[in-house]
């Protein structure tokens, strides 16, 4: 059985800003890692390659992206990037 890609919306709060992006993947983790490896929307989103690399290494452990209690199809993870806290939300998006 082949799993198809789903669309996910990524909402990132970091350094006083809020950033939105979308990525497709078989799972929330897969979508985030695909986004982190892409350079297509670096200017649009405003997050540099070092930030994306940290995201991909943070999420290399599948258990780091946690379902948000009480919500369906929403996951979150936070981590330190330099001296700033980055909060990452992933929402499965229907089209």
How would you explain this protein's 3D organization?
With 95 residues, the chain is α+β, with helices and mostly antiparallel strands. It has one domain. The chain is 25% helix and 40% strand. The protein contains three helices and five strands. It has helices spanning 28-37, 42-45, 49-58; strands at residues 6-14, 17-25, 66-67, 74-81, 84-93. The chain has a five-stranded antiparallel β-sheet with strand order 2-1-5-4-3. Helix 1 (28-37) runs antiparallel to helix 3 (49-58). It is globular, with a radius of gyration of 13 Å. It starts with 5 loop residues before the first strand and ends with a strand.
Q: How many strands appear in the DSSP assignment?
A: 5
Share of helix among residues?
Answer: 25-40%
Biggest beta sheet attributes: 5 strands, antiparallel
The radius of gyration over CA amounts to: 13 Å
N to C succession of SSEs: EEHHHEEE
Whole-number total of structural domains: 1
Return the average pLDDT rounded to an integer: 79
Report the β-strand fraction as a percent range.
35-45%
**Uncertain stretches:** none
Instruction: Figure out the total of helices.
Output: 3
Strand order of the largest sheet: 2-1-5-4-3
Overall 3D form: globular
């Amino acid at each position: 059985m082949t799993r198809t890609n789903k669309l996910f919306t990524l909402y990132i709060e970091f350094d006083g800003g809020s950033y939105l992006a979308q990525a497709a993947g078989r799972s929330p983790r897969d979508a985030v890692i695909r986004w982190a490896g892409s350079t297509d929307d670096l200017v649009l989103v405003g997050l540099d390659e070092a930030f994306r690399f940290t995201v991909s290494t943070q999420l290399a452990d599948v258990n780091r992206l946690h379902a948000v209690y009480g919500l369906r199809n929403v996951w979150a993870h936070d981590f330190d990037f330099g001296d700033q806290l980055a909060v990452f939300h992933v929402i499965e998006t229907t089209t």
